[in-house]
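Encode chain A's predicted structure.
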Amino acid sequence: MNYTPLARTIFERIARRTDRWATDEERIQRDLLRSLLRRAQQTEPGQRYGFDAMSISEDPYADFKERVPLVEYEDIRRDVMRMIEGERDVLWPGRCLNFAQSSGTSGGRSKFVPVTDESLRRCHYKGSADCVAHYLRYNPKSRMFAGKGFILGGSFASELKPADPNVKIGDLSATLIENINPLANFFRVPDKWTALIPNWKRKLPALVKAAADQNITNISGVPSWFLTVIKEIMKKKGAEKISDVWPNLEVFFHGGISFEPYREEYQKITDPEKMHFLETYNASEGFFAVQNDPTDHSMLLIVDNDVFYEFIPVDDPAGEPLPLWEIEEGRVYELVITSSNGLWRYRLGDTVRISQVNPVKITIAGRTKCYINAFGEELMEENAEKAVAAVCAETGAGIVNYTAAPVFAEGNRRGRHQWLVEWDEAPEDTERFADLLDDALRKENSDYDAKRTGDIFLDRLELITVPTGTFDRWLRSVGNHKLGGQRKIPRLANDRRIADAIISQISGKE
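Encoded structure for chain A:
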């Protein structure tokens, strides 16, 4: 039975509310900040900074910016640990029982992000509904609810073992699956038990069994891990394309990592007449944006989801953070959030490019600590992802994961960038791939091009193929042992700590 017409009437109301953002974003964000301050008056930050007075101030944002400092995760780690141990009213009212474990991109030490009931309901699930609403709005022929959705998530495997069994720590996706409306289970696979299996070696065949013979119309998850599952299903069914297994597959809601290195591969194995790809920005800290137009790769910032946004200009990191209503189109900003998960003026570590204002649309530019500027080249993650995607498309290669780091000048050898690459589909000639990648980086980044010109300052990049599973083993070695979860491989690093650790690992020198 096709339930899509019924679902469309519900989701159309959800999509319509976003239409007023073009003219009403400032009021929505100001009101939201006032609401957050009012609800958190009795928390420790509320008492410390006087949220009660701020919430009734004529201009709460001016007071908020003046009194409340910017923080990073290490500034609040002890407070979060107290919340895990059961203390109440620490960063958000009451007690928090759910925490999302997330690896920091520039290091190995895990973060544990509070996931309060309010943030689940008003942010994460609301963002998911927005995603479906906009997809249905732009696809009047959709039959999404004529079949089932395949949602790929992580588990509650964690390096922390809280004393209270009611406290759950794991991937954000596990928390979302655990608390999902039971009605959603009629439209999704796998079942909750299978979805939350912590051991990937057991989980992969269970996922294949659960989904291979279903009428799957939509999939949701991290591109790299979903590709692994899909290829196992194709292998089981003897199919060359996943669209041969699931002929009604029409949309992939993806997020977590850049889709660009994987886009070509997904296009090869799906039906181009039916398939759509929609990006989401659903981090452990919140569901921030959704692609609302399949023809436009930028995402609509969700401004009424219990998140108050601030933006620090990347080209002026010493500058004042700006509210949403003061940002400029075309500029790149570091994202700062205040939210009902108890994060107050929290530096997320992500950078976004503003592609449009009124309403605000963004693309993810990279991480604040994920870049290479060892030789003045200022190579950003955004440049690397675009270059990798372009060369993979040209050569037919596929990359599982990669990281790059500088190699400094030694003897008669100039400095260069060293790329460690794990292939899904290796190119016929890796040296040609390296040449093409170097050229693509020069096209994407004028500073890199300037340093490469004439081979005066920088040599052509060096590309090293690493064995299958290398990045998984490295993640486990630094405590991020969960496969398929909120784990991010640092794409670029300005030092050699990660690259040297991986090289030592594959050479057996650990």
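Residues 155 and 196 are 5 Å apart (CA to CA).
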